[in-house]
Predict the 3D structure of the following.
Amino acid sequence: MNTLPGLLRADLLKTRRTPFLLFHLLTPLIGAGLFLAYYSFSSWGESDKVLAFMQSIACAFPTLIGLLCAMAAEQEASAGQFQGMLALPASRITTYLSKLLLLLGFGLGAVLLTFALFGAGFGWLLQQGSQGPLFYLTGAAIIFGSSPFLYLLHLTVSLRFGRGASIGIGISGSLIAALMLTGLGDTLWPYIPFAWGSRFISLWVLGRTGLTVSPAVSGLNTGLWICIIATIMAGLLSVLWFRRWEGRSADN
């Protein structure tokens, strides 16, 4: 039980009586369904529909991550003020990694399900788009691959300050991500983690349609390097912080 697989199983069991799993199932169903319903009568072009769908998912991701990390943290708080994480014989690093990997695993599954449902409905039900499963799989991987920094940020904020702070930062992050899709974000987006997903997916989709932008102009190379380095640094700092953390007061 004190090994990482054992802790993962324990964390998974903790979610059985919470809306955590249901949220990861219903959100993709509702999200994909709403887009397909609108696109069934929309006059947009096919490429515009796909791009708008992927950009919207990327922009919504910070809010969803903030909410889900808050749910995971509050479950630990209500179960004994985090003693299930802090008092285990396992090392603090293993305990923290278990919670983080659970969130990342569920997040990856939700993104894949969202893109799979949309891709199937867009191609088979609406008879639009010629993209195959690999296209949607790659799009899901791009959005999820740019999100570990946000999971690290929101998990730390949720544990330290509570759900209000995490959800508030998530909502603000989604608004910032949408703003960074405008001309205002052309030079700023590589330095803003909330914008990574929406910008990466936009550049990739535009490249698939032939509207390529040079990496020097798009900021792609800068964004990739900053994303990788910042995520590694955030992982190390969050682990070091959790090793010294002793919980928060009940009134937070």
